[in-house]
Every structure is written in C-alpha cells, then in structure tokens.
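Exam revision sheet. Question 4 asks you to relate a sequence to its structure. Input first:
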Amino acid sequence: MATISGNTVTIVGAGSTLITASQAGDANYEAAPDVAQTLTVNKADQIITIDAIADKLITDADFNVTASTTSGEALTYVIQSGPATISGTTITLDGTAGTVVVEVSQAGTVNYNAASNTTSFVVTNPSLQDQTITFDALATKTFGDADFDLTATASSTLAVTYSSSDLSVATVSDSTVTIIGAGTTLITASQAGDNTFNPAPNVAQTLTVNKAEQTVSIDAIADKLITDADFNVVASTTSGEPLTYAIQSGPATISGTTISLDGTTGTVVIEVSQSGTANYNAASSTTSFVVNDPSLQNQSITFDALVTKTYGDADFDLTATASSTLAVTYSSSDLSVATVSDSTVTIIGAGTCIITASQAGDATFNAADDVEQTLTVNKADQTISLDAIADKLITDADFEIVASATSNLDISLAITGPATLSGTTLTLAGTEGTVTVTASQAGDTNYNAAMDVEVSFNVTAPALADQTITFDAIEDQILEDGSLTLTATASSGLEVAYEILEGPATITSNILSFTDLGVVVVKASQAGNDAFNPALPVEQSFEIVTVTGIEFTNASDIHLYPNPVKNYIQITGAYNSLKIFDMNGSIVSQSADGKKQIDISKLQSGNYIIMISSKDCVITNRFIKK
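Answer key, structure tokens:
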C-alpha cells in the first residue's frame, strides 16, 4: 500500500497499512515503545472520455468508437439501445433508423473505482424527412416544488418523449417531471421518427434542483428562578430532520433537550440547529430566558420601536433604559444589516435585523428580560447620469458612452438605431437615422433599480462638396499615331471618366484610340460620391488627319526656309507646336517650345512633311533634307 524512505511516504496502491514509528534508544535512552497508526488509501476515481460520434445514414459502413480512461485500464463497450451492434470497438448499423446509445465502462481495479460514460448518435434514412426538436432551457427548481410539465415539440408534430439522467434528482412520467431530491440531472427530449420522419437528434437541458430552506421553531421558555428544576426545550423544523441543541450563553447547561440551571442569575441563550442534508440547507434559531434570584430586585427595560432607515443613512444612537438605571447593552441579530458599538448603530446593508436591549443585573438587581425591536433598513434609491450625445455624421469614428449611477454600480447600456454597442463603445453603422441609447441599473441588495435614462441623437450624411474638371484643349491628331492618352483631372481627386460623343474613335479607361479620319468629340465627367457632388462635364473636340493625305497649306504670317535644307530650318511667325513626319507617316521629330530654329541635322536625306500648329490654324509643308 505504501513505502517509506526516511520520513517520506510513497503511496503504492489502495488499501490500508500500519505505519509504525520506532526509536531504538542509545547510550542514554532505552528504546521507546513503538507507536503504530493506520494509513488508509482509498481507491481513486477514474473518468472515461468518449470521442463524439457524428450522426449516420442507415447505409454507412462499420466504424470504430474511440474512448479512453484516466486510469489507463481496459474498457468495455456495449450498445445500450438503438439500431446497432458492437464487437470490441467496432459498431455495425442494422440498416434501420433510430438513436444509438453507446456505453463505455471500466469495472474498476484494486486501485480505481468503477466508472462509465455514454454517448449517442442518430441514424437516419435518406429517403425519409428529417425533423428537429425545440426544447427550451428549464427553470431552476427547489426541493419540494410541485410536479411540472415539459413542453418540447418536434417539427414533425410527432409526440416527444423524455428521460432523466439521474433518477435521484428527478423522474419523468410522460411529460411530467417529479422532483426527488436536490442536485442536477439532464432531461433529454427524443423523437424516434416513423415511416415518414427520421429520428430527431436528441436535445438535452439541465435541470437544477436547489436545496430547500428549512425553518427551526422553538417554543417560548418562561423566565426561571435559580432554584427551578431541570426542564426540556421543545423545538421542531420544517424538514423533519433531527435537531442539535446548545447553550450559547448564560447560567445553564443542556443535555439532549434537557436544560439544567447552575444556580446563578443571568440570561440564557439557547441555539437549536439543523446542519442540513442532501435536500435541505442548514438552519438555526435561538431563544432566551432570564434566570432570577428571588432575593434580588427585578428590573425592566424600556426600548421604543425603531424608526425605519435607508441604506446610506448616518449612524444613530439607541436610547433604551433600565428601571434599575443600570447601563443597557445591545446586540444585532444580523451584522450584514447593522452593527452596534456601545449604543451606536452603523447601517451595513439593506434588510431587517433584531436589535436586542439587555441588562445583566448586579448584586442588587436580577437580569432584566431582553427587549427586542426590529430595525428595517430599506434599499436606497439611485439615479443614472447619461451624458448628452451631439448629432453625428455617418462617417464619424467610434466614441464612448459616458454614464454613471449614484450607487457606483455598473451601468447596462442598450441601443436602437443605425449603430452597434460593444461595452461602452458605440460604432455607427454608416447609414442615416436616429440612435437611442438607454442606460439601466437593476439595483442590488442595497439599491433599488434606477429609472432608465435615454439619450437620442441623429446620424446624417455629410453635406456634399462641389468639384470641377480640368480638361485641356486637344490638338488635331495624326491617324497614324494610333491613340491618345487623356489627362483630365477632377478637383476632388476622384477618377475622371471619358465618353466619345461623336467621331471615329473608341475609348478604354483614359486611352482614346483612332479608328478613321474625322472630328472627334470627347466628354470628361466625374459622378461624385458620398463626399462630392457630380462635376459639370467638360467636352473637347479635335480632328484626326493623315500624313499621307495632307493638303499642303501655308499662311502669310508663318514661313520656313531654306528648302532644301541641310542642318537647320528657320521659322518666322509665332506657333505652338510642330511635328516632322517621314513619307511613311511616322513622326521623326516634334517640338512645343515655339523655337525659331529647328535642328534637323540628324535626319537622313530625303523628303519630309512639317506640320505647324498655331492658335489660329494648322499649316503643312514639304521640305527636302540634303
């Protein structure tokens, strides 16, 4: 069961063994008598875990169930119910629909207690309709509560059946649950199917049955004289369980239910308790009586009713008096409601407690009968402060809701409208509307629920800005160039779109492609977005011409010379740009700086065409390069 090395015990197995302590003595001491103590090692519990099994079709092949136990011992597998058989860990379906319940168990060993676990899966027929069960969560119950009915339904409208996993907590007959004891049990709703419907997947809900409260009642005990004989205290409890009796304080002893006075004066306080059971919470109650000496004077206490208080009220003083004029002492029955120091009461929490005024007597006076008054402490009211929220734009960033309660308790927030809430962080949904935030505080043991407070704000789209398009004039183009890149821009920075209104051209993105000779009209536009209005479109037109079909023109204010020319062409008159083409129509040189001298020294000898554009016209001419 155990081994020992030095003073360290190593547990080897369950059972019991004697651990013997010895001292052999030495030159000064005789050997000590051995002392033996029993070491008991209980068996350990083990836990069986079964891997979940997916629902099956009646045509599915054999498969294995996988399970393990914390003990590492061998497991036993059985089919508790349903259309299947098992061999070892291999499950074989029998070809019919239903719910299969598999039990895996371990019988226990010399060191481990027995254990078992179950799992289930549904076998369906693909030719039948599926169904589901709706089974709402179960309300918590208390031991002693009346029977109640279960109300699960199947989508097939077939009758639902029920079972309880722990019959010591609750049983089910048809759909009626009977509470047997405190604890938890799984109530499983099932529907086995029929010729039209497959079995429904089981739905389980946990039923929690709390222990019941019990009340201990004690018959009142009349005041006694120090010479009175023994007597019995009479008490009972609503649970019917055995009671324990004790003297809390005062000049008496108790044996069972029999009280014996010790011959002195004082107040005797008796406590009767019931320690609780599997189905009942513990409970206790007290009663008291005064033991007087007939040779002493009696006294009485005057203690007026107490004014109702509210949690948070200031301390206050008690003013009970004794007819003996001796000082009165006080006690509180519930220190979570109020405490008493000397004669000062401090409120701790809402609730009720008994404030007891006592006077223990002295050499002249017997103890006075205690006088009790109930102190009621009401819950305090609280209010919520919720900061106003300015109207927002749909593009505004997340922001925090600021709310607090005078109780300092946590605030609950709820929201309606185009927004979401995470904790105290509000996120706009990006659409227009009115958002209402509601702040709540449900109260607690010391505070009443606060009145809800709401704030609302409007969410609107931002005003749209205007934008303009810049689209420069386009010079006439040469057909042989093939295409033109358009470079219009919008002041908003948004992308400009283009459209061919007329003429021999096509457009892809901002690339305008020439398809023939003629005048082209192109429009640049920008449709706007959630920040900008649409821009006014801008149109530009130009002519597509061809080098090989150029009609040579001249103008009196623009001339070029010499012709033929070797290195430089001289130009008179103002112009914007020029292009020089070879006889195949390819551009071999171009300029847009209005220079009067054009370097052609690098051109090969031959015939060329020059096209000069001014603000008024386009002229063409032929020249010879030497």
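Marking note for examiners. The domain at 133-210 is CATH 2.60.40 (Immunoglobulin-like).
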